[in-house]
Specification:
The structure holds two protein chains of two kinds. Chain A is an alpha/beta fold. Chain A is 36% helix and 18% strand. Chain A folds into four domains: 3-216, Thiamin diphosphate (ThDP)-binding fold, Pyr/PP domains (Rossmann fold), CATH 3.40.50; 221-317, Rossmann fold (3-Layer(aba) Sandwich), CATH 3.40.50; 343-508, 3-Layer(aba) Sandwich (Rossmann fold), CATH 3.40.50.970; 523-577, Alpha-Beta Plaits (2-Layer Sandwich). A seven-stranded mixed sheet of chain A has the order 3-2-4-5-7-6-12. A five-stranded parallel sheet of chain A has the order 14-15-16-18-17, with helices on both faces. A four-stranded mixed sheet of chain A has the order 9-11-10-13, with helices on both faces. By secondary structure, chain B is α/β, with parallel strands linked by helices. In chain B, helix 5 (133-140) crosses helix 6 (146-157) and helix 5 packs across helix 8. Chain B is globular. Chain B starts with a strand and ends in a 5-residue tail after the last helix. Classes of the chains: A alpha/beta, B alpha/beta. Chains A and B meet through strand 8, helix 11 and helix 14 of A and helix 1, strand 2, helix 2, helix 3 and helix 4 of B.
């Protein structure tokens, strides 16, 4: 009986069936569900690591220790883990090691759309790319085999459209759980220059062997059709090609690094016109051109975003795009926004009011950059807020720093905010840093982390004390406030900004989607008092709206969670608590 | 391509579009079809515009519905019907829940919610039906069952056997909410749709 599985659950199933026993990750859309599904299997050790680098390092240790190990992260997580990644390519493995990179073409939930197939080439790793959930499961299992056969970590590269699409999967049994023998082998695992030189030789031999394997592996296959047009493609783009051009010849690549030169050359010789269809970077196309194989690619297709069947039909079959109604241009956009009751709203309201410069970070709270709060100046990557605040201060001086903050979430702070905070202490910055502690990794769907005191398997564990940690690195001024008590937050912020020393303000309140306890009783707007000034509307909450005809604010009882923030911003006390 | 049934389900993050697409997809699986479903997770779920695409038939390739090929558009909110209208075939069927959720630019008064939105939709896609699923769900005992009322309307339009849909609802809905949801589904099936 086949089941509908999202790509991520299929990858987890593949690892389970391949006998994997260790799984590590830091949550990140679109990769998160892979290891959260693996955590449900009792005989698999799974963890949320503090960041992707740690996740991979734990994975490397487990692999050297003999266990089949899966490490999963989003595309930008691979950047964080790049240091161990490039060198585990040299050491190779003991137990099979599969590293999943979940890329995000179209940036549904990311800050860039880098193409991590490039890592395969630069780090010298085999890269496997499935095109649906069944392949995701099968290729994951095969990736473990290849990892051990060729003594190499294997990258399984997927995209949002694969990770979050459900397609039918035939499930198998749990494979035999193998813990391979561990033997000390310093020349293989200790990457001193003298040993690493020896390993580089092995890496090049391995890539040559993998190139031979690429010619015959079932991961790469030709589907012959009309030979007037031949398409080389991989991943979900293969599905779009088959949908749009059912009659053409297709070389579908499941192993996208290294590429099969002979197979591609032979395919190219047998078709009249050769086109590479790949989302994002011309990774396959450039290799073809380097080999002197004539092919079209990015002169027809964009480097940007996701592809679609209709785009391919239009570019290659000359089909006209369907007529448009023109309605879309009249429709107000619906950007995502902070939830009703979200504690971040209080922080960004106060920051906007004070007109401070805000160095932001990655999480739900990045939405504080959007209308109507618009209280963020920069956001680059996980943990960057604190270092950026330091840099701003060193560029523009302490006076400027007294009107500037860094803002970072609890999970992001643990991920990569601690070292830049040490930089501020060590190099004598004066910045004020706000840690928005909502007791979860909210954006990716509420995963635990070291400061929640709960493991991925939902069992209690040692809880990282953020306040003690911040003091321990040398921050003397540490304040803990409730972000929904606006006056208190504003006072504390004023005091710490004025101080010519570094400060950390921990704005502590659980995510509104986890702790749904109302803070006040039900709210209503007294229309006698409301003067229509819209101060409450400017907090950007779906719990309150403006009645255009009456020029009065009104509570939406379906969405309001009675967090009590809008009464605090009302200048005429028109938002009241229902008595009794 | 013509043998594939393409159902587009749109709404606002948090409205429960997910359960609806899961029920439809499960029925399609139970009927022995090849099925693909695609959804957007992550940031858009925070009150943003969301879409589920369900495709089934003998063999489905793309998980996304090609623009202009959806057979049915089921919208949980009026604006979200208009936003995705171009994905529908010219003679495709539109089912709209009579619900208005103001997006931020409207809430803040920067843009107007188009008052004549249903007329505009009907002009481009005549086979449009507006249903007050929220009211029907309240009559069935729980406002949260509105999405299952819509499942009822939708499943009749695309010809899914009611007993199979009820089977899927039994699989996917928690036992304590089952009676209300079955009642909501049956009310939905009775709805007369412009097709």
């Amino acid at each position: 009986m086949k089941r509908l599985l999202i790509g991520n659950e299929a990858i987890a199933r593949g690892a389970y069936e391949a006998g994997a026993s260790v799984a590590t990750a830091y949550p990140g859309t679109p990769s998160t569900e892979i290891v959260s599904h693996l955590a449900r299997y009792e005989d698999i050790y799974a963890e949320w690591a503090p960041n992707e680098k740690v996740a991979l390092e734990v994975g490397i240790g487990a692999s050297i220790g003999g266990a089949r190990t899966l490490v999963a992260m989003k595309h930008v997580g691979i950047n964080v883990a790049a240091d161990p990644l490039y060198t585990v390519a040299y050491t190779g493995v003991n137990g099979g090691l599969v590293i999943v990179s979940a890329d995000d073409p179209g940036m549904h939930s990311s800050q860039n759309e880098q193409d991590n197939r490039g890592y395969g080439k630069f780090a010298k790793l085999p890269v496997i790319e499935p095109s649906d959930s069944q392949e995701a499961k099968d290729y994951t299992a095969l990736a473990f085999e290849l990892s051990e056969q060729f003594d190499t970590p294997v990258m399984l590269r997927v995209t949002t459209r694969l990770s979050h699409s459900q397609t039918l999967v035939e499930e198998g049994e749990r494979g035999e759980l193998v813990l391979k023998e561990y033997k000390k082998n310093a020349p293989k695992y200790v990457m001193l220059p003298g040993y690493a030189r020896g390993r580089h030789v092995e890496v090049e031999k391995r890539m040559a062997a993998l190139s031979d394997y690429a010619e015959t592996t079932p991961l790469n296959r030709i589907e012959w059709g009309d030979k007037k047009l031949g398409i080389i493609t991989s991943g979900v783009a293969y599905q779009y090609v088959r949908e749009a051009l059912p009659d053409v010849s297709v070389l579908k690549l499941g192993l996208v690094n290294p590429l099969p030169k002979n197979l591609i050359t032979s395919f190219a010789q047998q078709v009249e016109r050769l086109v590479v269809v790949e989302e994002l970077e011309p990774v396959i196309e450039q290799q073809l051109k380097a080999w002197g194989i004539a092919a079209e690619g990015k002169e027809i297709f964009t480097l940007l975003g996701e592809y679609s069947p209709e785009m391919i039909a239009q570019r290659l079959a000359g089909e006209a795009l369907p007529p448009v109604s023109g309605l879309t241009s009249q429709i107000p956009p619906r950007p995502p926004l902070l939830c009703p009751g979200c504690p971040h709203r209080g922080v960004f309201h106060v920051l906007r009011k004070r007109r401070v410069t805000v160095m932001g970070d990655i999480g739900c709270y990045t939405l504080g950059a959007l209308s109507p709060l618009e209280a963020m100046d920069a956001c680059v990557c996980m943990g960057a807020s604190i270092g950026m605040a330091m840099g701003m201060e060193k560029a523009r001086g302490e006076e400027f720093a007294s009107k500037m903050v860094g803002v970072i979430g609890d999970s992001t702070f643990v991920h990569s905010g601690i070292t830049p905070l040490i930089d501020i202490v060590y190099n004598q910055g004066t910045s004020t840093i706000l840690i928005l502690d909502n007791d979860t990794t909210a954006m990716t769907g509420h995963q635990d982390h070291p400061a929640t005191g709960v493991t991925i398997k939902k069992s209690p564990t040692n809880k990282l004390d953020l306040e003690a940690l911040v003091r321990a690195v040398g921050i003397k001024n540490v304040r803990v406030v409730d972000p929904l008590k606006l006056d208190e937050l504003d006072t504390v912020l004023g005091e710490e900004l004025a101080r010519r020393e570094p400060s950390v303000i921990i704005a502590k309140r659980p995510c509104a989607l986890i702790d749904r306890t109302p803070i006040t009783s039900t709210l209503w707007v007294d229309e006698e008092l409301c003067n229509g000034c819209k101060a409450c509307i400017r907090i950007g909450c779906t719990g309150i709206y403006f009645k255009d005809n009456e020029k009065k604010a009104a509570i939406n009882p379906n969405t309001c969670v009675s967090c009590g923030m809008c009464p605090q911003v009302c200048k005429v006390d028109a938002i009241k608590v229902v008595e009794g | 391509m013509s043998q594939i049934m393409n159902v587009l389900i749109t709404g606002v993050g948090g409205q429960g579009t997910l359960l609806t697409s899961r029920i439809i997809a499960q029925v399609a699986v139970d009927l022995g079809h090849d099925v693909k479903v695609t959804e957007v997770h992550g940031m858009a779920q925070r009150g943003g515009s969301v879409v589920s695409e369900v495709r089934y038939g003998e063999k489905v390739y793309s998980p996304t519905i090609p623009k202009g090929e959806a057979d049915v558009l089921l919208a949980f909110e009026k604006l979200e019907a208009a936003r995705w209208l171009d994905y529908l075939k010219p003679d495709g069927i539109v089912i709209i829940n009579d619900e208005r959720v103001d997006p931020l630019p409207v809430m803040s008064g920067k843009m107007k919610y188009p008052e004549d939105i249903i007329d505009s939709i009907t002009q481009f896609r005549p086979k449009t039906t507006v249903a007050n699923a929220t009211q029907t769900a309240i009559e069935c005992g729980n406002v949260k069952a509105a999405n299952v009322v819509l499942v009822g309307i939708l499943s009749k339009v695309i010809g899914l056997p009611p007993e199979k849909v009820e089977e899927a609802i039994r699989k996917l809905v928690p036992p304590k909410a089952l009676e209300v949801n079955l009642a909501a589904f049956r009310r939905g099936v009775e709805w007369s749709v412009n097709q």
